[in-house]
Amino acid sequence: xxxxxRSSDKAAQEAIQLMADEGIENAWDRLDAQKPQxxxxxxxxxxxxxxxxxxxxxKKAPLGVCGADADTIVARxxxxxxxxxxxAHSDHGRTVAEVFIAAAKGEAKDYKLKxxxxxxxxxxxxxxxxxxRDINEIGVEVGEIALKEFGKSEGHQLMTNRAPKSxxxxxxxxxxxxxAIDREVTESLHRSSMGVDQDYKNILKHxxxxxxxxxWGGAMLATELQDVLxxxxxxxxxxxxxxxIKADEVxxxxxxxxxxxxxMIAAASQDPELLEEAKKxxxxxxxxxxxxxxxxxxxxxxxxxxxxxxxxxxLVIATGAIELxxxxxxxxxxxxxxxxxxxxxxxxxxxxxxxxxxxxxxxxDETKAFDTAKVLVKRAIDNFKNRGEVHIPQxxxxxxxxxxxxxIKYMLxxxxxxxxxxxxxxxxxxxxxxxxxxxxxxxxKVTQDYSHTTLVKELIKRNVLVLTTGCATIACGKQxxxxxxxxxxxxxxxLREVCETVGIPPVLACGSCIDNxxxxxxxxxxVSEGGLGDELAGLPVVGACLESIHxxxxxxxxxxxxxxxxxxxxxx
Length: 572
Ligand code: CUV
Ligand code: SF4
Hints:
Helix content is 49%, strand content 11%. By secondary structure, it is an alpha/beta fold. It has three domains: 161 residues, Substrate Binding Domain Of Dnak, Chain:A, Domain 2 (Up-down Bundle); 145 residues, Rossmann fold; 166 residues, Rossmann fold (3-Layer(aba) Sandwich), CATH 3.40.50.2030. The strands form four sheets. Strands 6-5-4-7-8-9 form a six-stranded parallel beta sheet. A five-stranded parallel beta sheet has the order 13-12-11-14-15, with helices on both faces. A hairpin with a 7-residue loop joins strand 1 and strand 2. Helix 5 crosses helix 24 and helix 7 packs antiparallel against helix 10. The two termini are 17 Å apart. The structure holds Fe(4)-Ni(1)-S(4) cluster, oxidized (CUV) and iron/sulfur cluster.
């Protein structure tokens, strides 16, 4: 397959060619080796749940050994995938909650509760007393309530109360308002084990419940607590694509999901002593760039450059210019180890729950986070001298990131009266036809970035305001769609007029995958602002995920559906 069939991103095409010339395999090559992929697996009609199987359902044998039919098997597989996606986001949320508490207690001295205004809002929401109390004391209590959301034995997810009343009533009527996150995940595994839930409708109902525990629970908590810890994002400039890698500097890639690690590496790269060390080895500085959702987190809060999305992770190493890649959890390909072995790049895993066979592990302990980050940066500097030939595809685009819910509200309403009113008004008068959330990954089965960016351009042309998260954001960024002056050229007249008046771009970069929870809050705000109906289901809002790879994307899709929103999902 030609590089341009594999990716629509010019930088990626160049790197794919480079790897082909060197005879180094990447995800696309491994996909080719896997072909043809199993048809039963693709349809979800293969069951490996018990030892009487594996059973694959076909016309000839329509039932598994236990008698389970295709509906049950597909529904069970789907539920397990959604539960796994929820577990991933929520474990991320749990880690944040633990660091949050440690920071408030002063045990993780490198982290501080930065956004105290947001902390106070959370305190009020959680019923924590604030009068005359020390900010860290409030923080400990808020953090402990948040941590309880994962395993409490009674009650439902607190943040489901943020949804419009009408939606809460629907959840209660159908019995899908989520309880503790861990409980919903555990119950998913129980229900889908051999001989338990065998009514596909009942199984899918629980898929909604567990997914809601993510969207209005684990992922939302992760977002909110991270905002307090690292600051609520506000619009800032950054750059996107492999051209951000610098030939004359020490380059570090942070890849994965939890800003707990990347925030510290970013800070350590500015350390005067380490910058001095870098000079000594002949480098003009230290560049930290991100891939995948970690990149979104850093772009959102610090304008730190984005090197690429999911399918770029192996390609960035092929530039020969990466001294060190530090990874934590989720969406990290095991193939990175083999690619790194062809270059001088030092690959290091940092999360104790995510090691890779044959790859060095440096444990990221929150109590000595900055020191650990400094060790990693020093390792990168020491590795600079081992560089061979360097080929950096010279493509990059300017991007504006940082559109948190709070920012959008502020930009729409102005500083005196933050409000979604102008958005509702412009939807009602027809200048804006609706809102689309374009989310998710990049999948080697489809041409990288093509579906995301084509859809976004077509939507804004038709006056639909677009909000993006995850690797879809980075896909847009690489094509200049997060650069207001480029994106406005594609926008229809009505949308363009509104964007220019209010000062927002037509494509808003809203962050990482967990930041999809920001979209839920924004939708609830559209309802409470009035004029667009009194239910989430009535909103002119759609979510689309066209290049997904991860079970997390299924969890996100399902919590949008269970929140009443229209979702378009494509999986090859
Ligand atoms: Ni969590 S889940 S490939 S990094 S968006 Fe990117 Fe985003 Fe999908 Fe993974
Ligand atoms: Fe087969 Fe039923 Fe066992 Fe699944 S649970 S492997 S369908 S016997």
